[in-house]
Amino acid sequence: MLCCSGSQVLNQVSKWDALRSFPAEYKELMSFLEENKINGVIFITGDRHHSELLKLERKNGYTLYDVTVSPLTSTAHKTVGAEINNPNRVGKEIDEQNYGRFKITGEGKERKLTMEFIDLKGNVLDSWSVKASDLSY
């Protein structure tokens, strides 16, 4: 299940747009996912003027991922402060114009999502994959 949001959901160190800035709402969402054993959640987010993949390992559930893809047409920005070395980042921060490409392959528990950050010339800047079986209780 891909969940889209205009702001990052899992970023623990951002002082900008992030659901973590709203602790009650963040806790409600995390509790809902856990109590209802919602499988396959990946957050697709944007509006940060850079792209990155964040992960959150949970004690009572599978690892959650937040794929931020931004910007395609506006100016890109590098992160500052604590976000420079965000401990939840997987791979690298992409601080140039780019877009995301998502591919889903395989069947059943072998189904796999591959996500690529692509620059304006079509070059893959970074990529990441996860199996459906890694996104379940």
Q: What is the number of independent domains?
A: 1
**Coarse shape:** globular
Number of DSSP helical runs: 1
Order of helices and strands: EHEEEEEEE
How many E-type strands?
8
The percent range for strand residues is 35-45%
CATH class label? Alpha Beta
Distance between the termini: 14 Å
CATH domain topology: Purple Acid Phosphatase, chain A, domain 2
Helix content: under 10%
- The structural class is mainly beta
Point out poorly predicted stretches: none
Examine the secondary-structure arrangement and name the CATH architecture: 4-Layer Sandwich
* CATH level-4 homologous superfamily: Metallo-dependent phosphatases
Q: Give me the side-by-side strand order of the main sheet.
A: 1-2-4-3-5
Mean pLDDT: 93
What does the main sheet amount to? 5 strands, mixed
What does this structure look like?
This protein has one helix and eight strands; from the N terminus they run βαβββββββ. The protein has one domain: Purple Acid Phosphatase, chain A, domain 2, CATH 3.60.21. 9% of the residues lie in helices and 36% in strands. With 137 residues, the chain is mostly beta strands. The strands form two sheets. It has a five-stranded mixed beta sheet with strand order 1-2-4-3-5, with no helix packed on it. A three-stranded antiparallel beta sheet has the order 6-7-8, with no helix packed on it. It has one helix at residues 23-35, and strands at residues 2-5, 42-45, 51-56, 64-68, 89-94, 98-105, 112-119, 124-131. Strand 1 (2-5), helix 1 and strand 2 form a beta-alpha-beta unit.
